[in-house]
Amino acid sequence: MKTIHYKFLSAMLIATVTATAAFAQKAAPGKVWTPAKANAWYAQNKWLTGSDFIPSTAINQLEMWQADSFDPKTIDRELGYAEGIGFNTMRVFLYSLAWKQDKAGFKKRMGEYLAIADKHKIKTMFVFFDDCWNADAKIGTQPAPKVGIHNSGWLQDPGNRIKDAGIYDELQAYVTDVMTTFKHDKRILLWDLFNEPGNSKKKDASMPLLVKVFSWARAVNPDQPVSAGLWDWNFEKLNAYQALNSDVITYHDYTDEKSHLKTIQLLKSHGKPLICTEYMARTRGSKFGNVLPMLKEQNVGALNWGFVMGKTNTIYAWDSPMPDGAEPKVWFHDIFRKDGTPYIQEEVDLIKKLNGK
After folding, report:
1. So what's the pLDDT on residue 13?
2. Which residues on neighbouring strands pair with residue 301, listed in sequence order?
3. CA-CA distance, 238 to 236, in Å (whole number)?
4. Measured between alpha carbons, how far is 270 from 276 in angstroms, rounded to an integer?
5. What whole-number distance in Å separates Cα of residue 206 and Cα of residue 162?
6. Strands 274-278 and 89-93
7. How far apart are CA 311 and CA 303, in angstroms?
8. Share of the chain above pLDDT 90, in %
9. Is the CA virtual torsion 295, 298, 302, 305 positive or negative?
């Protein structure tokens, strides 16, 4: 999902950890889980492995969740692929406009998704907001994928709507309604409040919404933990706030195993469980073969970006479009073709082995 590479890993991680204390006075209201509570929660779960998930028939979050394009048949089939390799967790992006259009229907479809996932022994990590890719969203039929371009239709949320009058009241109602409805649902593993805040050159301009969404979540006080993943070590203020206010530490890392291990070693200084909610970009040296065994050894949750090749076009790299739409020699993300055939059988064999399948 991220569009810049980790170039300043160790120095910026150290700055993030050091800065946490400086921002302690800005902690969101409510009770952030203690390390003891967070670690006890983590110990109740199997090692968390899985993927960021959107069905192959959806180009973005709206196409996944709107009534006319919601596709439980494909979701069921593709989560079956996940169960088959031992995945037990999926990270799934929601979308505020789909809720605004049809509140009851949106939550009903969330329930349908959870029922399908539960049938496949998969827990769900739902994501509310996102600063990545396209800033303007429209309800209705979504655009076709742009040939050979990674995530050409993915949507920021709220994107440019952040400038609208009354938007914070609307977003608060959305988060409060959805989270209150599902606050006791054991099929939900965790609430991921904000994906990559500060992306799309927003930087600290995303801080107001980040602070508010943590406050709204604390007011609901769900049974499940809440978090917002660290992802760019240049963003000291955002990183410190995210780390301080997250019940468990989630993060993204698309580097090789040696660099990624440094990330883990430094983030462990928070004393809380770690879940990597995005990794695996083959052409960047982040692969199942080198990273996934290390994550298991470190007892770090492992959710890679990309599952079944489809309308998101994430077999193509962030910065390497293929105008002719040819299949790249090396897929950037994704594990399966639409029919369930693995892109690389040896990768699937390794995933199954590490998951005890």
Report:
1. 53
2. 275
3. 6
4. 15
5. 10
6. unpaired
7. 20
8. 92
9. negative
- DSSP-H helix ranges across the chain: 9-22, 35-43, 61-65, 72-84, 96-101, 103-119, 167-181, 207-220, 236-245, 257-267, 288-297, 345-354
Report whether pLDDT(2) > 60: no
Specify the DSSP class assigned to residue 158. Answer: S
In the chain, where are the structural domains located? 9-354
| 65 in Cβ contact with 103 (< 8 Å) | no
Write the class of the CATH domain 9-354: alpha beta
Residue where the block lists tokens 């609901």: 220
What phi, psi does 215 have (nearest 5°)?
A: -65, -45
Q: Which amino acid belongs to residue 307?
A: F
The Cα 351–Cα 347 span in angstroms is 6
The residues that bridge with 303 in the sheet, in sequence order, are 50
Could you report the per-residue pLDDT of 20-78, keeping only the tens digit for each? 444 443 544 569 999 999 999 999 999 999 999 999 999 999 999 999 999 999 999 99
- pTM of the predicted structure, to 2 decimals: 0.94
Residue 133 near residue 155, CB atoms below 8 Å: yes
What is the mean predicted confidence (pLDDT) over 283-287?
98
Residues 6+ apart with CB under 8 A from 290: 256, 257
Strand order in 301-305's β-sheet? 226-227, 188-195, 123-130, 89-93, 49-52, 301-305, 274-278, 249-252
